[in-house]
């Protein structure tokens, strides 16, 4: 049995190059701020790309690898992610009031690999969400919320166009709407834009997600907070279930006692006896 092996599904372009090296690190999730796995891919040309490691996991799943059995049956799928999403919370936290150099922004004691995000961030991309302040060779950044919202709005619109052209359940439902309501193209556009908002909001804080919703012309979307809360509750439930299984906690569940049915005759006797005294009361002094 082999448990220290992991099954990854890579795109061909990620592993075709012989000079590419890959490393998996833990960084803060930009929305939940919890630990999440990410993959850095580096080449000899000093090119570096960032990927989010998504995990598909089911119980009672294993892999047969050559002559061995890998009991870790999870599937890991690295997908590209815009590093600006991961940097955004640090900009909000450290340089909302003043300009700070990037190497002083990307500091996290619990996640020391955060500083590696500088490798995947060209300076011109940082200007999409921050103002640049230069003093000689020193480049400092100050978070600009207006710029950040403009960047997020444009990202939602681009994603909305992709959703509208992709084939799948969402596209089919939109085509059905078009057949039934040919004159309601605006509603179709709002539907795909709202879907894009939900996807982008998964990488934002609740406060910034609400501001993005308003900037896109939607009313303040309470579904964002509800969705985030449901995810947190689900993670908590999974952790509790795992702990329960590890502790072999098999405490039986007590079911409430069934209500006893009282016949009409018994009710009549009880009513007749409600005002009478018991026989033992006649023998008391």
From TrEMBL:
It comes from the Eukaryota. GO terms for biological process: RNA catabolic process. It is found in: Nucleus. The keyword Secreted does not apply. It holds the Pfam family RNase_H2-Ydr279. Transmembrane segments: none annotated. Residues 85-212 form the Ribonuclease H2 subunit B wHTH domain. GO terms for cellular component: nucleoplasm; ribonuclease H2 complex. The keyword Nucleus applies. Keywords: Nucleus. Residues 19-82 form the Rnh202 triple barrel domain. PANTHER family: RIBONUCLEASE H2 SUBUNIT B. Belongs to the RNase H2 subunit B family. The RNase H2 complex is a heterotrimer composed of the catalytic subunit RNASEH2A and the non-catalytic subunits RNASEH2B and RNASEH2C. Non catalytic subunit of RNase H2, an endonuclease that specifically degrades the RNA of RNA:DNA hybrids. Participates in DNA replication, possibly by mediating the removal of lagging-strand Okazaki fragment RNA primers during DNA replication. Mediates the excision of single ribonucleotides from DNA:RNA duplexes. This is Ribonuclease H2 subunit B. It comes from Anopheles melas.
């Amino acid at each position: 049995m082999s448990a220290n092996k992991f099954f990854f599904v890579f795109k061909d372009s990620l592993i075709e190059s012989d000079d590419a090296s890959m490393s998996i690190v833990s960084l803060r999730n930009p929305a939940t701020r919890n630990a999440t796995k990410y993959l850095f891919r580096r080449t000899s040309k000093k090119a570096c790309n960032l990927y989010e490691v998504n995990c598909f996991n089911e119980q009672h799943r294993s892999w047969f690898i050559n002559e061995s059995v890998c009991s870790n049956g999870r599937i890991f799928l690295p997908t590209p992610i815009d590093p600006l999403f991961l940097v955004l919370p640090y900009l909000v936290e450290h340089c909302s009031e003043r300009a700070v150099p990037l190497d002083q922004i990307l500091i996290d004691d619990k996640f020391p690999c955060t500083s590696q995000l500088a490798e995947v961030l060209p300076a011109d991309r940082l200007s999409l969400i921050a103002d640049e302040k230069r003093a000689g060779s020193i480049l400092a950044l100050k978070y600009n919320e207006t710029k950040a919202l403009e960047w997020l709005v444009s990202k939602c619109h681009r994603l909305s166009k992709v959703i509208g052209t992709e084939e799948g359940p969402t596209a089919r439902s939109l085509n059905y709407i078009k057949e039934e309501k040919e004159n309601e193209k605006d509603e179709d556009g709002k539907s795909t834009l709202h879907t894009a908002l939900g996807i982008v909001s998964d990488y934002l804080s609740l406060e910034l997600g609400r501001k993005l919703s308003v900037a896109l012309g939607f009313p303040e979307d309470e579904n964002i907070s509800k969705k985030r809360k449901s995810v947190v509750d689900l993670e908590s439930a999974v952790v509790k279930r795992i702990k329960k299984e590890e502790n072999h906690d098999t405490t039986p569940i007590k079911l409430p006692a069934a209500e006893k049915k009282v016949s009409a005759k018994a009710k009549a006797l009880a009513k007749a006896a409600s005002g009478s005294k018991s026989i033992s009361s006649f023998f008391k002094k």
